[in-house]
């Protein structure tokens, strides 16, 4: 097989590399000193790069957008009607500020063409390509749709007086361009008057002379809770959120394609509360001139059909159950003209939904199981904010990846290769006792309000918690509590039991949110290390499965406690304590001295070991992974002042929200264990042991300039 | 997709569930039909089976305080003394139950549950609220000791008078360096070893800007302090009543939310130390000779035992001379018998704990009970299914008939194969020290329309869940709890509520108190999703809310607690709305409403449906009184449901679940409405 990887921009490798089974080394590797896998023709692990799926490599990787943690598919059009799936227009949002040498510092809109299907019949796309466009790079309101023969990009704008106009640009397929200016602009009023604030618009071609416009508006405007005092919760003492939930309602209009004037603007359903926390809308063409309407979606993945006849209902699966989307959905986009199929996207995977042609008696359309969009030569992608652990999950003697993510799933990637030369496939969900994929979500009570109810931020640590020889999962998530699930199956066929809480003296074990606890068994004693409610590093010892004994806070060699938060006065833009927590802990002997050290993946606002001079201390320059060397022993942990991870002596920023570090024995470990770091864009970076250097003290360098970082055109994506 | 919504009130560990299941004796259940006794209007439902056997309780007292375990009537097993404090003075209907009470031991049941006779009041010089009293047999005398941080009091038992007297025999000064929460004595000749559970860090409620501010900060961390306890020990000279110096047996933070301590000793001396307990049901053993080996007590599977309800007291069966002990708390009294074994790490192993019972009792479901009256086991006779504050749901099978019901001990209901238990966890409206509370509010209803009874409930949280019966009407088999959703997010209202449910024309309608504590109607959609059908209103168009602005509490914890029941009270064919609530409830508006505006009385009101089942419109609320006078059953919460028990020739009667754990029956002819608007 051929594997194409662009590795340019490093000064290390400057050409497209084509690897076959006869050429085990990558071109330029010798100069770079990279320790690529000598045995593998298609290395999954290359130091400083995202892990790639090399098992069934032709199936590619799930769609992702460079260093951004959200992908927005804002258009699906059939440029080639012979293809099974449409061409898609994608934009990355969120993050993308990295200066990692293999990623561009930002990510604008891209286009990808369907090249076929994968071995699992999933849509497969070419690598994402840039194109020219006249809108702002970060504009998430653009809709691309097909008209009579052409493809257009629309941008709808509502003025404060309620007038809505739109800009339009035509897509030149040959030139791969929407142009640099709009061909039609909103100053030529479209005649749309909307009484409610416009959120999103959908445009659907209906005939040579007419298109349908769907407007998702705020029927009830929500009010975010805002108190400058971070000690004030978003929830009252009654547990009720102090903000108000926004609701969406739907208007529509008919667009004359000749005059580009809109007519007959009307409210579709006399209900201002069709859907809470609305995000997007798209057309539903209907069947045989019946059941036409639109589809609306909200942040939590609820998808509703709104019929022109006033029907409002969920969409359903073929079993008659309401079909929800597990990802954090920002966009829904119909595909092609006269289509009832659509793509959802957001912070997580992009999914393609195919209409079954049938409806429920209540009116809701029925869809087939959704399929993730795949991209040729894509990286392993875990939605966003992956938290990896490397263990032999299926008991075949080879280590696999087990990963938690921000939607709250725990997934695993089987290693079809070896520990030295791993070959990972796409992930599979780990299921709960009911046989359904695990999904831990915040629910109504979430640190940052119920609008974030669908986030899970799960940080699992795979570990034999009860000492029966089977891997269990101990985890923190979008909460401050730590839970566990026992493996009630076997070593080769794990089967997770119900999630259980942990307690100290009958009080639920609680700390700061979004943690991954560190675990270790030493001389038969099982330790759990985490940041407690005061964000101090704290040690507990397992007494029973659900019960721990408090072993006290852990200290530095100078006796001071170790905290993880940044002093609030040093945080420029965050009003609440949601920037606290987020620490991913790993106990491992990094330097080979026989003592368990502590590696912490943090967010940018973390500050270990004190609020003023700790790391990473709001420093946006580099990796938020720090190492605390154990200067005590494996029962009495005493840590040296933390050191910050660098890659070959340089800082690289992989995103601010979270970094999750995992020490592993994948790849060549002749110099010591290696490291994986899960980063906010949903991918995992592999680092060879000796490629990692450590900043020696806690001070922040002041002379580093971000512009000296090497940029790379991440053109593949 | 399997969804574990992050619950602010997580499901308890399996050990707690296992514990709860072992408490109630199964062999004491009747197998043959039983003739029930005629019910007394205004009285609690009696236990009929096995000479009225039910869990030990004291009238309308929520938590009797266990102060003495002493062999008086029998050497086989000790008698018990409890302190009771009840302000439920409803003269002339009911007398208050206040003071010291004596339970004489009857027998050990076939499942080893200790069984007692009904309580007798005894005279005592201490206040009923004084929890720092314990009783000891020293020589031939029975003494009562009270040790606080500053004072030592002693009284003795006069067998002839059956009294501890009206005054203390001895009063002396003490200077314990910390607040004494509890103590225990081990008499040893002319002296006694004294162990004290002390509070070295107080609970501290956080400052708030207003009642609207949560006790938690924006990171979800509690802003107050959780109490911590330390164990001290000393010697007490029993001749001169002087103490030696106080020595720390444990480090300062031996246990959170400390409540109780007792000394335990096995006959062979292998077990020699003390057991401490806390509000959250944790039980730890501290060996005297190696206190640093302090560890949780275990069951015979080696797992940590947590008491099924919060602990107020822990008491050895015989002061310093028994390895066995009792716990008592809000939810009942439990007996723990030592197995004689230890884990490899040295933690003592106890057998399955047993509920303590007494005869000639009322049926009892824990505390703050919230009932549903329905045929749970498909035998054609209406039963009681009741949630309680510990977070369980209990099933009381009716072995009699609807008119003459016969109830016995309750059984814990299982869901997903284990006993259903919901607890607040760390995040609780009133702080993490209340994390052990569950406040279950279940409504039995065929939610999924498959012909079997399900349970829809809320609890110590703002969300709603359902456990669906996937078995048969006769053999219910409940699923794991599933969350009720709207638009992909949990349906949320105010906490500690019970939903009203009715099926109208094939549609399932659910009535809750929403986030604004307004009565809000939802319609079940597919699965566990609901559709918003808007607020319900009074006949004049006003919305109906339940909170009071004049409750004088420091936060909104007194809100919520609304137990809704949709049932046809007036027999006109339309479902009316019955509401049980807390003392401060105020329907339909904060400024003027029932029951709050009328002060103390039965916290049970009803609103007549003057619309239809399809379009519910309600009249102004009316409050129930008993024969025209207020009938106060407790302020925390009340659940009111209709019931077919007793004489129903005039219409259905009323059943009221009250805070002490009982169910009070009212014949409708004894209930007189009171209104503020007519």
Which keywords apply here?
heterodimer, A: 717 residues, mainly beta, five-stranded antiparallel β-sheet, 56 strands, 37% strand, disordered N terminus, disordered C terminus, B: 678 residues
The assigned structural class of chain A equals mainly beta
How confident is the prediction overall: mean pLDDT of chain B? 89
Total strand segments of chain B:
57
Ranges of chain B where pLDDT stays below 50 over 5 or more residues in a row are 1-19, 26-30
List the helices and strands and how they pair.
The complex is a heterodimer of chains A (717) and B (678).
Chain A: E1 3-6, E2 16-19, H1 29-32, E3 49-50, E4 61-62, E5 68-77, E6 87-95, E7 110-112, E8 114-117, E9 123-125, E10 129-130, E11 143-146, E12 151-158, E13 163-170, E14 192-193, E15 198-207, E16 210-220, E17 247-256, E18 261-267, E19 275-276, E20 278-284, E21 293-298, E22 303-307, E23 312-314, E24 328-334, E25 342-353, E26 355-359, E27 365-367, E28 371-372, E29 374-375, E30 387-391, E31 400-404, E32 410-413, E33 428-429, E34 440-441, E35 459-463, E36 472-476, E37 482-485, E38 500-501, E39 503-504, E40 507-508, E41 518-522, E42 525-531, E43 537-542, E44 548-553, E45 555-556, E46 584-588, E47 597-601, E48 607-608, E49 615-616, E50 625-628, E51 638-639, E52 643-647, E53 659-664, E54 674-679, E55 684-687, E56 692-695
Parallel strand pairs in A: 9-29, 45-51
Antiparallel strand pairs in A: 1-2, 3-55, 4-29, 5-6, 6-7, 7-10, 8-9, 11-12, 12-13, 13-14, 15-16, 16-17, 17-18, 17-19, 20-21, 21-22, 22-23, 24-25, 25-28, 26-27, 30-31, 31-32, 32-33, 35-36, 36-37, 37-38, 39-40, 41-42, 42-43, 43-44, 46-47, 47-50, 48-49, 50-52, 52-56, 53-54, 54-55
Chain B: E1 4-5, H1 14-23, E2 43-44, E3 54-55, E4 65-70, E5 79-84, E6 99-103, E7 105-108, E8 114-116, E9 120-122, E10 133-138, E11 141-147, E12 151-156, E13 170-173, E14 179-188, E15 191-201, E16 228-237, E17 247-248, E18 255-256, E19 258-265, E20 272-278, E21 283-287, E22 295-296, E23 313-316, E24 325-329, E25 332-336, E26 338-342, E27 348-350, E28 354-355, E29 357-358, E30 370-374, E31 383-387, E32 393-396, E33 411-412, E34 414-415, E35 418-419, E36 441-445, E37 454-458, E38 464-467, E39 482-483, E40 485-486, E41 489-490, E42 500-504, E43 507-513, E44 519-524, E45 530-535, E46 537-538, E47 563-567, E48 576-580, E49 586-588, E50 593-595, E51 604-607, E52 617-618, E53 622-626, E54 639-643, E55 653-657, E56 663-666, E57 671-674
Parallel strand pairs in B: 8-29, 46-52
Antiparallel strand pairs in B: 2-56, 3-29, 4-5, 5-6, 6-9, 7-8, 10-11, 11-12, 12-13, 14-15, 15-16, 16-17, 16-18, 19-20, 20-21, 21-22, 23-24, 24-25, 25-28, 26-27, 30-31, 31-32, 32-33, 34-35, 36-37, 37-38, 38-39, 40-41, 42-43, 43-44, 44-45, 47-48, 48-51, 49-50, 51-53, 53-57, 54-55, 55-56
